[in-house]
């Protein structure tokens, strides 16, 4: 679920902001790194970028000939979020359909729990549709559900993951 990773990255400081020295240059590098980190969202291998924790090292800057900008190689530690097949997690239902429900878990918003993967639950239509079992346990909009990840899919164009989840193991289902 949560991964601590160490990443090499290149930070480009524009030529117009290079009048500064010492600590101000360090600050410029850190601010640019944070901006770049926040704009990336996710990768297939590491999952969603959540937090940059420490700046490990800053290499020697190299001036770009055409623009005069300076490129600094940096190494930093970060925390990422990625779901793995077979993992148990919890998510919140945000849409109930006749054939299943959509959940969100952390930054993953497109998790599908099919009616076929909810043993003993039946669809109850109405203004606020729900899935209910014989013990009167409900899965409705806003319900927190513990599930197992069956599979994930990376969508390159949107830079996000989709997941298929199920309730076919012990202690899975709505959380009170």
Automatic annotation (TrEMBL):
Function: DNA-dependent RNA polymerase which catalyzes the transcription of DNA into RNA using the four ribonucleoside triphosphates as substrates.
Family: Belongs to the eukaryotic RPB7/RPC8 RNA polymerase subunit family.
PANTHER family: DNA-DIRECTED RNA POLYMERASE II, III, DNA-DIRECTED RNA POLYMERASE V SUBUNIT 7
GO molecular function: single-stranded DNA binding; single-stranded RNA binding
Main localisation: nucleus
The keyword Nucleus is annotated on this UniProt entry: yes
Keyword hit for Transcription: yes
Cell compartments where the protein resides: Nucleus
This protein's name: DNA-directed RNA polymerase subunit
Gene Ontology biological-process entries: DNA-templated transcription initiation
Domain of life: Eukaryota
Record-linked InterPro entries: NA-bd_OB-fold, RNA_pol_Rpb7-like_N_sf, Rpb7-like
Organism (species): Malus domestica
CDD domains according to UniProt: RNAP_II_Rpb7_N
Keywords of this entry: DNA-directed RNA polymerase, Nucleus, Transcription
GO CC annotations, alphabetized: nuclear DNA-directed RNA polymerase complex
